[in-house]
Design goal:
The protein is α+β, with helices and mostly antiparallel strands. It is about 50% helix and about 20% strand. The chain has one domain. The protein is globular.
């Protein structure tokens, strides 16, 4: 009987520790950034205090499809790019995309930073690596996303998000 109780306590402790780990600060440097739907949902949640309903999602999806289609028709080099599926179907920001693609996917940033000292603060521990890409601008988005650009091209992506 005692070994069973020890196992139950051990499993409970593991679950508690796993739950605590999920509340840690999220800090990462990545080549694949936020998805358009996640940022849009976060913006709606912040503005309205609720997630978007089915009709709002459908309208957003249709509008996004139109914007992406129009961009690809006007930019045939982007339409034949290796990463076109990330932009068109996954709708995720990634290194190598243009600032126009980021604006289509995520909308305008919360803030635009051009000062190197401020960009260093945004990049935190990743600044030495980010600095190698020579970014000239950083855009911030909800959930702690930072998109670093050099001459209208995404060169790096970081995230620093503190759980609520």
């Amino acid at each position: 009987m005692i070994p069973d109780v020890k196992r139950i306590i051990a499993v409970g402790l593991v679950l508690v520790l796993a739950g605590c780990a999920s509340w840690r600060t999220k800090e990462q440097r990545t080549t694949e950034g936020p998805m358009a739907e996640d940022i849009w949902t976060m913006k709606v949640l912040i503005a309205n205090g609720r997630e978007p309903n089915f009709d709002e999602r459908r309208r957003w999806d249709n509008a996004m499809e139109q914007k992406i289609g129009q961009y690809l028709r006007q930019n045939p080099e982007a339409a034949s790019s290796v990463d076109v599926s990330t932009f068109r179907f996954i709708r995720q920001v990634s290194v190598g995309q243009t600032s126009d693609q980021v604006l289509i996917l995520l909308g305008p940033p919360l803030a635009r930073v051009t000062d190197a000292v401020e960009m260093e603060k945004l990049a935190r521990q990743y600044w030495p690596a980010v600095k190698e890409s020579e970014p000239t601008e950083a855009w911030t988005y909800p959930s702690g996303w930072r998109i670093y650009l050099k001459e209208k091209t995404v060169v790096d992506i970081t995230q620093y998000a503190i759980p609520y």
